[in-house]
Amino acid sequence: MGIKMKKLSVMVSVAIISLLSVSPIHAADKPTTVAGCKEPTAKVHAPAAVKEPMTIGKALPKTMTIETNCGVIAISLLPNKAPLTITKLSALAKAKYFDGTFCHRLTTSGISVLQCGDPSASGSGGPKGWKGYKDENLPTNAADYYPEGTVAMANSGPGTNGSQFFLVFAPSTFLPNYTIWGKITKGLDLLKKIGEVGAYKINPSDNKPYYASDGYPIQTVEIKKITVK
């Protein structure tokens, strides 16, 4: 999961460059964008304060639509298996917490996931004032914990769920510690293309981006809007 020290000799997206305050790199040797993706307009910002629902909602949504600068990702929710998680995420979506944010992490080796839901794009941001909530619907099938199309919560340990989640775009098996709350029904092909373009990290010794198996998506992914129904 560390930096692969192969220099990213490509023009990295202007949006990411401004996000990380590094100089752009010229000369392309492989694609850095996905066809159809538009220039993002979002800006990194501190997570907003959203009133946290403390009890499970009575009428939970069944679908989530994520509108990105690259296209739509549709998710079939699992309210019967992860009702608390769906309640929390629905409250955030209805408060527009996710709107105008970046998916900040892409992993392409060992596991294949795109991680989103942190307005600060730091990997440590969550709803202001929330303490974390319990895990639900943890997988039990050791042969295939997180199959392609799974949507699950990201966390830093038991009971630390907040707003961050990941979208699985190829079969991935890792520790069964992450609440599964949905299934991708549209946009899986888009996620695969984003994965093919790859990820990068900034090498602190020269402050330049290098290809990595785990880092920021080279193709910037901006969540324009999330709706639940």
From TrEMBL:
Protein name, entry field: Unannotated protein
Annotated ranges, domain PPIase cyclophilin-type: 71-228
CDD domains recorded: cyclophilin
Taxonomic lineage: unclassified sequences, metagenomes, ecological metagenomes
Organism: freshwater metagenome
Pfam families for the chain: Pro_isomerase
A GO MF label: peptidyl-prolyl cis-trans isomerase activity
